[in-house]
Design a protein that fits this description.
Structural class: alpha+beta
CATH topology: Nuclear Transport Factor 2, Chain: A
Order of helices and strands: HHEEHEEEEHH
Helix content: 25-40%
Radius of gyration: 16 Å
Distance between the termini: 43 Å
Largest sheet: 6 strands, mixed
Strand content: 35-45%
CATH architecture: Roll
Oligomer: single chain
Strand order of the largest sheet: 2-1-6-5-4-3
Shape: globular
């Protein structure tokens, strides 16, 4: 079972993540770790690190806040909010989601899977695609 301390350390790492912290991924993630979200399915710690390198290339600012968590054996569930300012933009995007993190017995993370609604929280903010998706949502909604 993963400890509260390990979970608190993992949460603190992501809540304070800067480009300078990317070198610490080898300490946190297993060499064969997987990171998945609606845009990525990265396998291996180098590929996971690249997801976050790309994030820092694409945003001018960000903040990550975990509101709650639950532990079940070696699995951790996080409820979070991610705020970002896309590069060259002034508006702040807010993404709310859940993560499932699996810890190995040695304390390293073997999987981190993010779940969030990319359509309403990202795609609908893109000019042409957003208009289509918002119209489709209105047609389908009860």
């Amino acid at each position: 079972m993963v400890s509260e301390t390990a979970v608190a350390d993992y949460i603190a790492f992501f809540e304070n993540l800067t480009p300078d912290d990317l070198g610490k991924f080898d300490e946190i993630f297993a060499s064969d770790a997987r990171f998945r979200d609606p845009f990525n399915d990265a396998h291996g710690v180098a590929a996971v690190r690249r997801v976050f390198e790309k994030m820092f290339e694409d945003v001018d600012g960000h903040s990550f806040k975990v509101f709650d968590h639950a532990i079940s054996g070696n699995r951790v569930y996080l409820n979070w909010e991610f705020r970002l300012t896309p590069r060259g933009k002034s508006d702040v995007w807010q993404i709310e989601g859940m993560s499932v993190i699996e810890f190995r017995e040695d304390g390293k993370v073997s999987a981190h899977v993010d779940h969030y609604d990319a359509a309403s929280q990202i795609y609908e903010k893109i000019p042409v695609i957003g208009a289509v998706l918002r119209g489709l949502r209105r047609r389908i909604a009860a």
